[in-house]
Amino acid sequence: MLRWFSMARAPIAPDVGVFALVSLMTSKKWESCRFSPNFNTFVTQKNQHTMQVWNEYLAENKQRFLDELLELLRIPSVSADSKYKEDVARCAEAVKEAMVRAGCDKAEVCPTAGHPVVYGEKIKDPALPTVLVYGHYDVQPPDPLNLWDSPPFEPVIKDGKIFARGACDDKGQMYMHIKALEVMVKTDSLPCNVKMMIEGEEEVGSDNLGKFLESNKEKLKADIVLISDTSMISMEHPSIESGLRGLTYMEVEVTGPNRDLHSGVYGGAVANPVNQLCKMIASLHDENNHITIPGFYDKVLELNAEEREALNQAPFDLEEYKKDLDVKEVWGEKGYTTLERTGIRPTLDVNGIWGGYTGEGAKTVLPSKAYAKISMRLVPNQHSTEIENLFKAHFESIAPEGVTVKVRHHHGGEPVVTPTDSPAYQAAAKAIKATFGKDPIPTRGGGSIPIVALFESVLGLKTVLMGFGLDNDNIHSPNEKYDVANYYKGIETIPYFHKYFAESKA
Ligand code: BES
Ligand code: MN
Ligand code: MN
User: Fold this and answer.
1) CB-ligand 1 contact for 473 (6 Å cutoff)
2) 202 Cα to the center of ligand 1, angstroms
3) Which of 78, 165, 203, 240 to mutate to test the pocket of ligand 1 (most atoms within 8 A of CB)?
4) Which residue would you say has higher pLDDT here, 28 or 232?
5) What pLDDT does residue 236 have?
């Protein structure tokens, strides 16, 4: 049984003159420790009291907090597939209701050209700093269904982990913020104003959210954006992502003959678009696994030796990594480590490829068409539309005579780097230290959250990425999970962020 709430008081951050309740983790279990009154002399009465009531409220409502998340996970809010449109709408309503129950004075479902945005706020005092929490209630499609050990929208808890689509990405992580708000509001200890913007289109590229930002600038006015939609290294090595990669997502269509042909009658005499597409795709990397698109690396910001050294200091076990994935060897751009390949280097991947006959048995056919979905992860200072244009021009130029190529764009987003020397990052670091008992390690995340760049360009806001997921949470994959301990740890940590951020602005 998980004993997440057994806590001890231990000294932290003497510079701020407080002692926090620190969850001590020895081995993988929480050890029960008794409160030691000796430490008490250093704690201001008010601070100590606040932390104690937070923890009491958490302990008393622990089971309900979990049950409510499971309820939300039962709604199949798949944004990519129109057959779930009603469920997505139902999920938005559920998020709004949850905001009201948590103590928001205002909560609304805001229609967009796509799926709605849920907005809620608790304004304590307009003079206080405001944190804008962003998250998403939409999830990835659950396919392939046959690879799930339990149905994706019937959450189960096994070995202290919640298994369901969205458990980690991002319902579980987003819901921590709603529960953390409840903790602060219901114990009358909210240190700042909180606004929440929870969208329903993150997994399909947030196409309508930029417009929502543009037309709601006043409503979204804040001092910082706080997001839990990324991962940390482990509970033993808490970390904060200080960057996200950008994305350019394309689809290509290769056409050979005007109709499917008998592969005996025509085979060997007419270009097969599937063969040609494979050849074109293969040519996009050279023998060192560099991407061959001319100009692709021109704007890539190279880190200096010192920065690379720092990045590679993060705990990482290559053997464990390979073992976890059942691969004999890792793959990637020559001259870079695995952490660099996922953190600071751009990539190109085929996400899906199809054409010809893929049904049961065998059919002899020389197909007329072949398709692929190709995405590129971008790093500073690459730009998604520039990369889109370079890709398109190159892909068209390498098409052999016997086929025609159509290239179209799906979506894109810009890379971001979040500063680690800002008061907001420091508030997150102190919050983590308060509840994990360790300083977080700054890391560079490989994933993308397209709206983050727009928070800065449209609203002028910086972001803190305080994620509690783990890389092996199987997000976007069958058997997605989120550790119950991480869920509770997030709820426990978030109020500290608000407190330390508000103090930094005082
Ligand atoms: N939460 C992820 C992004 C993420 C995951 C960042 C892990 C860092 C670590 C987000 O929901 C996501 O999946 N984004 C998409 C991009 C989107 C445009 C479909 C992605 O990264 O593929
Ligand atoms: Mn996400
Ligand atoms: Mn995702």
Assistant:
1) no
2) 8
3) 203
4) 232
5) 96
